[in-house]
Amino acid sequence: MIKLGTGIVTSGDGQFNVAQLGSVAQTIALLKKEGRQIVLVSSGAVGLGRGRLGLHRDRLNDMVMRQACAAVGQSLLMHEYEKLFGAHGVDLAQVLLTEGDFVDRNRYSNLRQTMEALLKLGVLPIVNENDTVSTAELDYLNIRAGERIFSDNDRLAALVMSHIEADALVLLTDVDGLMQFGPSGSKGADAKVIPLVEEITAELKSLALGPSEGGRGGMLTKLDAAEIAMQAGGVAVIANGTKPDALAKIFAGEPTGTVFLSKTRMAGKRRWIAYAAGVRGRVIVNAGAREALTGGKASLLASGVVSIEGEFDAAEVVSIVDAEGLEFARGISDYSRGDTQGLIGNGSHAPSGAAAAGATGKRATVLVKRDNIVLLDRK
Q1: Helix, strand or coil for residue 193?
Q2: N or C: which terminus of the chain carries fewer CB neighbours within 10 A?
């Protein structure tokens, strides 16, 4: 999975950067001839649309204007890629995705089947968010802005990588990698690239930069993407795509950028619950339930639930929250909101300990099975 940032795809004036992408296309073509299956996630549609329409960058602060630019830029982007890869005999397919392609389990399954079919045909899928309809779908799915599954192509690339179980995620940007600044704290000569990361910590995230100038993502979103790739058991690389030989060096095994190596692998369904599924409601639990879930292998029982928020149906993902409002887990609910409310009553007298011995009747009912619960690392 190779993701190209806006700063790689477009130049400062909103034009397709043919000179910069020529070596990328050549390397991808060579990799495909070697038998590797490649998926390209490309930013740049909004920037190309802005350039074609002659709009100032400040106009992109308006969501509707961004969507209009995306609508104009998508066809421009694919036209340029057709010319670029056509010279190497590589066939392309455009894949535009929205939140619903991940939230809905049927569409999620269909996405994998489609991607696998394209790869078997030898086609290079070019993936992007369908910006022109994504906001409307967010409203339809009742997903708030702060609960988005992806709001940038870094995370989108990681989610697709995780879903199709690709071996590697390469994020090409306009910086050399994750930087460790020197004593001065500046980006000058004393700043060095961190070559290898085996665990993404809070301290590491503090090194991340703010949003990039032309795109929506920044280094923090790339760390989030790398974390998803690591949970999928893959390798992630953040490297400087403005250097002509960067991609070739990565696949030749030469030290380039920051490499993220995985120590553990989360199962596919659990990755969907943790990263790709839309959260439809919140289940607030007492201290005993939190301890039972985090300290053992307990399911979530009705006896541990204090209250519920939001509307959700059975088989939808809910956020599991403690009394202080901290989300520490997510899970697939066996019941709808209405049925859950009937099982817990008003919740005001829920006994401490979701897995407490002797729980009987409704309050002993399993709301979320242990196999459908994923604990979240909130360090």
Answers
A1: strand
A2: C
Output the CA–CA distances (angstroms, integers) from residue 295 to 291, 302, 317, 326, 353, in the order listed.
5, 18, 21, 16, 12
> Structural domain of residue 224, as residue ranges?
2-270
How many separate domains does the chain show? 2
Find the CATH number of the domain harbouring 287. Answer: 2.30.130.10
For residues 62 and 205, membership in a common domain is answered with yes
Q: Are residues 263 and 302 in the same domain?
A: no
Q: Give the tens place of pLDDT for each residue, 34-78.
A: 999 999 999 889 889 998 999 988 888 888 888 888 899 999 999
* Integer Cα distance of 197 and 195 in angstroms: 7
pLDDT digits (tens, 9 = 90+) for 285-306: 999 999 999 987 899 999 999 9
Residue 234 CA to residue 292 CA, distance in Å, equals 31
Domain finish residue from 245, 270, 295:
270
Q: For 144-172, write each residue's pLDDT tens digit.
A: 544 556 667 898 999 999 999 999 999 99
What does the pLDDT look like over 244-274, one tens digit per residue? 899 999 999 999 999 999 877 878 788 888 7
* Whether 21 and 133 share a structural domain: yes
Same domain for 210 and 295, yes or no, is no
207: its two tokens:
């090194």
Strands 279-285 and 305-309: antiparallel
Structural domain ending residue among the three candidates 240, 270, 300: 270
First to last CA, the chain: 28
**d(Cα 276, Cα 374) in Å, to the nearest integer?**
12
Closest CA to 355 of 367, 338, 342: 367
Share the mean pLDDT of the chain. 83
Is residue 51 within 8 Å of 10, Cβ to Cβ?
yes
| Number of Cβ atoms within 10 Å of the Cβ of 272 | 21
| Three-class DSSP category at 362 | helix
- Say if CB 131 and CB 66 are below 8 A apart: yes
| CATH code of the domain containing 222 | 3.40.1160.10
